[in-house]
Design a protein that fits this description.
By secondary structure, the chain is of the alpha/beta class. Helices cover about 40% and strands about 15% of the residues.
Length: about 375
């Protein structure tokens, strides 16, 4: 397999969707593909690990220190992306999550008096439930996506159902579940110590965390409230929010108004191994079915507490692979975390069973094989 594939992505934020992309692109590169990645927005992360895997990184946004704003940045990024596609002549162009899809759709649209772009098929991956759009924006997005050579890959049927409701054809949607790679459990102790040093926490403190966009849909206030409840009886407990987004200042203010203000911490630009330094992983929303971050935490033998419903019920088996809580039940996050702190043997058993489920049900090889088979089908059908 020696295809040239150009991926477009909003930023190389180290966790979440980028972890899935890293698993895929490293495997593609090892199998002989020429993998190129175009970063359309913020570029703060080091690209050394990608380059060492034989992957070429292109940064297209001249203002690469601020988050991407699709329409504001469209006028500069779209011409750059078109030039890059012309110069590379990829077999496939693959937009990976976020606003990369919209900008890539605009850039790859055949326009009057322009030379057609030299690629065979356009693909996008969506790992989250699409947010509601205004009527005009929805019409515009449907117009851009009305192309038989455009397919969207999603990890779960709930995202597929939502896209069909918004006008996308079922034949243009492919389901490939997320995956996780096994983590070296032996590294957890050193990562744990480094993370506590960075946050200024005592070595014997307990730390729960979550990785999510800092937006209302992520339900992060529920977790701050849960922290406030738990720290009333456990002064050695702390909570870490990892991510970036427009609600950062609001969440910081909300946390400052609670009794747990000094127990809530934020990291915007994490190290890739950060999840391994947590004692517990909290997942409070349904916006990312088969959540890559939840899988990564469980693969690292981190005990997980998650809302239970569509998109998490395939992963969380209550009191077996994790603790399931009701949507919005802040007290349940606090209660089960207290139980895990006070019952370390049960915590270790559940974490091990969670890791075994992820390794058995969501191995990275299956995800990579499914993508490769999908790519080959699309190229041969043209």
């Amino acid at each position: 397999m020696n295809y040239r594939i150009l991926f477009t992505i909003e930023s190389l934020f180290e966790l979440g969707p980028v972890e899935e992309l890293k698993i895929l692109t490293e495997a593609l590169s090892k199998r002989g593909c020429d993998v190129q990645i175009a970063v359309l927005g913020e570029h703060r992360s080091e690209a050394n690990q990608w380059i060492e895997s034989g992957i070429k990184i292109h940064v297209l946004n001249k203002d690469d220190r601020t988050p991407l704003h699709s329409f504001r940045d469209c006028f500069s990024i779209v011409p750059e992306l078109r030039r890059l596609i012309h110069s590379l002549s990829p077999d496939l162009v693959h937009a990976w999550c976020g606003q990369a899809e919209l900008l890539t759709l605009i850039a790859t649209r055949n326009l009057p008096l322009t030379q057609p772009l030299p690629f065979k098929h356009l693909i996008s991956t969506r790992l989250a439930i699409p947010r509601e759009l205004g009527f005009r924006q929805q019409i515009f997005e449907n117009y851009l996506g009305d192309n038989q050579n455009f397919t969207t890959v999603v990890p779960h049927t709930s995202i597929k159902t939502k896209l069909i409701e918004r006008g996308k054809l079922e034949s243009q949607i492919e389901i490939i579940p997320n995956s996780a790679t096994s983590q070296l459990v032996a590294q957890k102790t050193s990562v744990r110590e480094t993370l506590r040093t960075h946050l200024g926490l005592p070595p014997n403190s307990y730390l729960a965390g979550t990785v999510a966009p800092l937006v209302h849909r992520s339900r992060l206030k529920d977790l701050i409230w849960a922290t406030d409840l738990l720290t009333c009886i456990r002064d050695d407990f702390h909570f870490l929010i990892v991510g970036n987004g427009p609600q950062l200042s609001r969440l910081q203010r909300f946390a400052s108004l609670t009794e747990a203000a000094s127990h809530v911490h934020f990291i915007r630009h994490p190290e890739p191994s950060l999840i391994q330094g947590l004692d517990f992983y909290w997942h409070p929303h349904f916006q990312e079915p088969i959540s890559a971050n939840l899988l990564a935490a469980m693969a690292a033998e981190i005990p997980a507490i998650a809302v239970y419903g569509e998109g998490t019920d395939e992963i969380i088996r209550h009191q077996e692979t994790g603790f399931a809580v009701n949507f919005g039940a802040r007290d349940e996050f606090a209660r089960w975390t207290k139980f895990l702190i006070e019952k370390p043997n049960e915590s270790k058993t559940m974490a091990r069973q969670g890791r075994e489920l992820v390794e058995r049900t969501f191995p990275s090889k299956s995800m990579v094989d499914d993508y490769i088979a999908f790519y080959e089908r699309k190229i041969k059908s043209i």
